[in-house]
Amino acid sequence: MDIKRYVNDLALEARAGARALGRATTGQKDEALRRMAEALKKRAGELIKQNRKDIAYAEKKGLSRALIDRLSLNEKRINEMAQG
After folding, report:
1. Which residues contact 38 (CB under 8 A, 6 or more apart)?
2. For the chain, what are the domain ranges?
3. Which of 36, 59, 72, 79 lies at 20 to 30 Å from 44 by C-alpha?
4. Chain segment 39-77, per-residue pLDDT in tens
5. For 62, which DSSP code?
């Protein structure tokens, strides 16, 4: 699949998702957020492992320490994301 078609397909899916979200009840939205928070916490180890690779690449490319710090994930940051 070429990139133009891929991006177009993503845009169409996003539009459909936005419509569905607009029709969702508050309870449904709350449940979706709760499930996403659980998934973040459950996969924290995997997220941190992959983030380390991203950080190593960022360091190799010479990104600033401040930016690298903002991009870095750890258990505390993931838990804070899950808490909202």
Report:
1. 82
2. 1-31, 43-84
3. 59
4. 999 999 999 999 999 999 999 999 999 999 999 999 999
5. T
Give Cβ neighbours of residue 44 (< 8 Å, ≥ 6 apart).
75, 78, 79
Rg (CA), the chain: 17
Identify the CA nearest to 65 among candidates 55, 77, 54.
55
Taking the C-alpha atoms of residue 45 and residue 82, their distance in angstroms, rounded to an integer, is 14
Residue keyed to tokens 């600033």: 64
Residue 51 exposed, middle or buried by CB count within 10 Å (0-12, 13-18, 19+):
middle
Rounded Cα distance between 7 and 61, Å, is 27
